[in-house]
Structures
1.
Amino acid sequence: MVRKLAYSVSEREHWISAAGGMAGILAVLWVSHLWLGSQGGVLAVASMGASAVLLFAAPHGALSQPWPVFGGHLVSAVIGVFCARWLVDNPVLAASLAVALSIGVMYGLRCLHPPGGATALYAVMGGDAVHALGYTYVLSPVLLNVLVIMVVAVVFNFPFHWRRYPQSWHRAVVESNKRANPLQAAEEKAMIPHSDLVYALSQIDTFVDISEEDLQRIYALALKHESTHPHDALATQLATETPS
């Protein structure tokens, strides 16, 4: 039997994520229109919609961090244009190869970002307006779109203290709080050593879209809940194991 975790995100978080997505795409289209004008041809790549979901609905995810967003889109855009021009007489093969190469290169550069695959695909299948851009497609609209939506993600997520985006900016603060907070220091003792986490993830052998910090936090909170609410933990276990 496959166990499923409850969908535990609050209603408040749903609407904050939706508002962030709206702000991000509005900014992308507005800035692109100002920069490129009505004759700009392609103002935005469709993959920005997918990036908005990651940046505003899953801001803590590894796939949502700045380097994956920036590197993933730009690398994929270059590959997409290359395939479109190299295999101009075979767009089906060009599109398939563009996505495949983008995945491989993003893995190699540690900038895996699923919307990057759509950026590569759009370079091939976007039609004459996109093809006419050539490698300019990488800078405008892709780079312009990426910079705008990343700036909005940083600014929009900042007021919400639980939305730590980008995560790297908050690590120093977290370490400082651990030293000042005895409770956090006690939780730290229960955490899994980094080497053990790396080993466990290598055994799964698939990409897990969660940071090590959040994995540790989830583990510590689960241990704390189990120690303070043993009956709740037992009831949850029994409910999970009972066939529906």
2.
Amino acid sequence: MTPRTLRYLSGLVGMAAAAGVIWKIFMLSQDSSRIVVDQGRPAPTLISQLHAQADHPSFMTGMEHLPHSLAGTQPPPGLIIDAQGHLVISHKLRMFFDYFLSALGEEPLSTIEARVKAYMASSLPHGADLEAEHIFHDYLNYLMALQKLSAQTSATVPTQGSSLDMHMWASQLQEKRQLRASYLTPQVIQAFYGDEDAYDDYTLQRWEIAQDTSLSATEKSEQQKELLDRLPASMQQNMAAMQRLQNVQQSDADCRKRGCSAAQLHAERVAEVGEAAAERLDAMDAENTAWQQRVQGFLQQRQQILASPSYSPEDKQAQIEQLQSQQFTPNERLRLAAYTPVSTKAATPMVP
């Protein structure tokens, strides 16, 4: 899913509020494994920080001295126990883990592990905290194995325009699921990834129907509707919101092909999603344009530094990092990394 798609979905959240936040967007925004390369050197990853040493205080609750990105926030309520005092395994537990893992890079993995364990020990009865710690350990091992798998396959993914080849995508889905089974129990897999897997299966099967030349247009439509009807009700509601997104995207593309004005584009969006959502989309377009201009300006300056024969590689890296910190906030720098080409050092991006 492209950054622009994410931004359109954000604009539609207001429309989809009654049906709940679109789960796929939340998954993407919370997925701690989506860490990309930063300024030509490997980004902090689970593997690179596995043995990192950290000077940190002994945590009592895990919330002491939070990194900047987590300051003023609270973990998702993922630590739930049943009537017998056992840990309830749910998707909220994964959200809880990912909350702390999102700070990877601001602090070492060893510090994050200490935080999580301290928080669980202070929040859960004895026994449940050990259950949670065991799952967290398995989850970390899976993420590190996933990083290795992604490093092996990401460079060979064929593309057609901006779309992944579906056959390769299906193969990677299978590999990823087999990897999960090596580290996580079926109960954890279903709780952490059940909805995500259902959506991926739906996407793949819908594509297979669309490619089936033996079916008429009517038959394809009927089979795709049957697929949708088999999804849980909550996912069907979210799919309806995503369909509205696709309609808006198609309408935008058609309008731009015709060379329509900004006013005409706005009018077509109003017809599709209403005035309020159309205004949000217009505002995001303006924000995205400003962001792209900032990025292009930075990349031009970065290229000038890299092309200069007057600096050593270390000096170039230092100047680029200084330039980056002067022009972008910490959160923006994470986003910027996706636009930054890898330069002098090999990097291992983490792709879920």
3.
Amino acid sequence: MMTRQKGTVLIVTLWTITLLTILVAVLASQNRLSAQTAFYHQQDLGNWAKLTAALNQAEMELMMERMDEPPRELEVSELQQINENPRYRFNGQPLQLHYAQPEGVVVRIYDHAGKINLREISRPRMRALLEKQLGEGLDVRAKLDALMGAWGDWLDLNDMAGLEGADTDYYLSLDPPYRPRNGAMETVEEILLIRGFDEVFANVDLDAAFTLYGENELVNLNLATVEAMQLLPGLTDELIAEIVAWREENEFRGNGDVAQIVPAENMADLRSWLQNNKTSNYYTIFVYAESDHENAEEGDTVTDNAVTGFAETIEIIGATNRPRVYKINPYQRIPTRLKVVNPL
């Protein structure tokens, strides 16, 4: 009897020790998890502070461009640069700001003069964009007529469908139903709602190619995004790569400079789209962390493989006023960056 009691006590003791061991392990795991959560939360706050600081510094960079320089005597090297436009650096290249951004943060600024303006584009120019996207074929003309009819009906101020067009009745019959704008477009993504346009522009980064800001429908190749150039008549991927390489060291000051790269037959289609001395007051700023900066050691080459970044679209309204913010996207896709191996 005594032996049985001792055995029972031993089993209870072992179970108690086991349960206490499990409880201690669980508590330790929870403490480790809490510590890791606090660490990563602190790390995220630090990264967010860096990105916010870089964003504010980029805004200041754009405001500084509107400031008048004090009168002074110019050095010879500065006189040689008088005809160079410093605003052309806002073409998406990685920037080193005057107020240096935090280490490990990439800043890119895109002037909207390098995008196609959907609010200002004329019907002939829209037709030319569509024609390039559709390519050649026997039924292209019929498709173009239908697309242009839908485009016109989306923008007009009435609910009546025009020739080859589509208006309220068509869009309300869709699943889910919606109404046409019947006015100026309010977002670039809206173009995909127009009948047939979702197929034409399905693979286009709309934010990179188009803008709704400004009052000019022409594009400055010094500032143009790859996505915008891919839509322009007369430009191929090979020519776009040459343009990007050329502007690494030069400026397009007129169509004569462009003609050094673009063949005459292509220039015939492209020429009417260009205004290569135009800038705007509208910009999209991208800030993001360099991909492998955290693991880089001194002397390493840090790569930029980021796909998205924190983006802010703004209007600069003066040197002493904060910018007007139109759009913020914490995860906006970064426009295409071509690697220039041998600049011309």
4.
Amino acid sequence: MELPGVVITGASGRMGQMLIAEVLASDKLRMAGAVERPGHDWVGQDLGAAMGGKALGVTVTDDALEAIAPAQVVIDFTTPDATVAHAELTAQARAIHVIGTTGFDDSQLAKLEAAGRHATIIRAGNMSLGVNLLVELTRQVAEALDAEFDVEIVETHHKHKVDAPSGTALMLGEAAAQGRGVLLSEVADRGRDGITGARKTGDIGFTAIRGGDVVGEHDVIFASEGERIVLRHIATDRRLFARGAIKAAIWGQGKGPGCFDMRDVLGLK
């Protein structure tokens, strides 16, 4: 029986190449396609040769439809606009769509939800086991503490990251809001500058730090009079995100249409 075929979008990027390496090392998946943007040097080349190794028999294409139509799995760490376009194709192909892209707006998320009526979509702002455990712990702590504990989420990433707060920080904020029984959109404080006045009780604050080559650090701080609780996750190797995406791709086999996240994959819900 042939293994499920995987297409990697954004194949030449750091995450794309890590994903390709993990698929090639897997005994449950096979490399079936690679997509890059039009005009990229890799387009038309054998994927293995483009990566500086032996030929793999997979040609890099800029035609996402051509690559995705016969695929069983698409793993996508690209940009919000590109991912939404890919979701339309995965819905048509009834393929599993594993999404690690972050920075979606509400209209883009609505399109992904619509695609999930036809395809298995597994989307997470962070694919790591540790972060998803942190999300669940954040929910539980927020549920146990009252609003007198101020919640602050501090995230640090490399200087090339283009969105803020990070997808992981927003996952943590959603978990804290869920634990408190409120909507994050109504209590999020995502920017402070100048004379802001006293902190509003019940708000969930976000701080984004950018610098150097930091892979990812996230702190959730619960602060009250006389004490603080700090939950922290530190990532030092991007491969953990690629491994999580592969785990999601394998988990999604046979699941049918729907929108899922890594807590579903890891059995944390």
